[in-house]
């Protein structure tokens, strides 16, 4: 199966500007197509190491770019306010919440225009969440029962409602794609499993849970060392998910539609993490050591919110129950893997 999956994702060879290449660990979203020169996927700046995401339709381009720029402005205002250097400009209502959101979103380095396949496209330049990982495992999880935004046409709503029906309605989650390294039968070797949206659409709730276990190497941790590393991985993913949920519980600014969480970790660290991060003592002892372990795990485990082309002001200042439903389901799934 792994061989077939790898052969199925042979990338077309678009005409790219010098210094840029296709992003090898893209698992979902728009991609390059051999028969459609206008189709553009993620790029990587081979010098800077950041990811370039192509912006979509004009209205989506404006929303996504405005979102990233508003986060950057809020972070600047919050920092200036904290330093007591605000003069004429005052922090706008909600700036603190937007600034706090910034830690859960890939760093934004501005936007630029590039010619790809003889066509000009606008890209946002973002942090590469897999940078520094030897064997990056990546999963895109789309959040919420409702994935169409308030301006969607009736046809668009109907199309969206027919996608990922079971998992979306039961869990508020969709699985557009993932890739994961798994231990091979030969000791010391690995295989790469990769699946896209067709696989995700075929899943029921039980299949979704099973797939999550596979992705976290919880079903294949056949050594005590790797099993301990998987436990560290799951606890760190939970910590980051719970921080995002805490932000959503207090914010009343925005509603996110068709937005995803990107979960990344380095398979190569599963064994070494267990050896360098012994479990803290019980009853609250050595809390500082536990914090140190969490800090170390965050270097090779990253959970970030992505895809902001359909972010709208919150209706009547209401919380984003749609996103939180999916997020709480995801937390429950990860907890069930950890504590089973």
Automatic annotation (TrEMBL):
It comes from Drosophila madeirensis. Its EC number is 2.7.-.-. InterPro entries: IPK, IPK_sf. Pfam families: IPK. One of its GO terms (biological process) is inositol phosphate biosynthetic process. Belongs to the inositol phosphokinase (IPK) family. Coiled coil: none annotated. This is Kinase. It catalyses: 1D-myo-inositol 1,3,4,6-tetrakisphosphate + ATP = 1D-myo-inositol 1,3,4,5,6-pentakisphosphate + ADP + H(+); 1D-myo-inositol 1,4,5-trisphosphate + 2 ATP = 1D-myo-inositol 1,3,4,5,6-pentakisphosphate + 2 ADP + 2 H(+). It comes from the Eukaryota.
């Amino acid at each position: 199966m792994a061989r077939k999956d790898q052969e199925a994702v042979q990338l077309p060879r678009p005409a790219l500007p010098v210094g840029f290449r296709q992003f090898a660990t893209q698992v979902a979203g728009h991609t390059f197509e051999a028969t459609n020169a206008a189709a553009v996927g993620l790029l990587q700046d081979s010098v800077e190491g950041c990811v370039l995401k192509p912006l979509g339709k004009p209205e989506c381009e404006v929303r996504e770019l405005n979102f990233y720029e508003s986060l950057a402005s809020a972070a600047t205002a919050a920092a200036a306010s904290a330093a007591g250097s605000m003069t004429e400009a005052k922090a706008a209502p909600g700036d603190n919440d937007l600034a706090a959101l910034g830690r859960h979103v890939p760093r934004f380095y501005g936007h630029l225009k590039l010619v790809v396949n003889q066509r000009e496209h606008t890209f946002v330049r973002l942090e590469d969440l897999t940078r520094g990982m030897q064997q990056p495992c990546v999963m895109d999880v789309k959040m919420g029962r409702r994935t169409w935004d308030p301006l969607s046409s009736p046809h668009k709503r109907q199309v969206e409602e027919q996608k990922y029906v079971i998992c979306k309605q039961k869990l508020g989650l969709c699985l557009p794609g993932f890739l994961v390294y798994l231990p091979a039968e030969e000791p010391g070797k690995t295989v790469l499993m990769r699946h896209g949206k067709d696989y995700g659409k075929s899943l029921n709730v039980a299949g979704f849970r099973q797939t999550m276990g596979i992705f976290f190497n919880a079903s294949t941790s056949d050594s005590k060392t790797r099993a301990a590393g998987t436990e560290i991985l799951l606890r760190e993913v939970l910590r980051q998910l719970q921080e995002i949920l805490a932000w959503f519980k207090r914010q009343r600014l925005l509603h996110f539609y068709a937005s995803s969480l990107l979960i990344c970790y380095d398979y190569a660290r599963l064994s070494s993490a267990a050896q360098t991060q012994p479990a803290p003592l019980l009853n609250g002892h050595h809390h500082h050591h536990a914090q140190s372990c969490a800090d170390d795990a965050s270097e090779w485990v990253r959970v970030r919110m992505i895809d902001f082309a359909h972010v709208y002001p919150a209706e009547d200042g209401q919380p984003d129950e749609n996103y939180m439903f999916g997020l709480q389901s995801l937390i429950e799934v990860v907890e069930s893997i950890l504590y089973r």
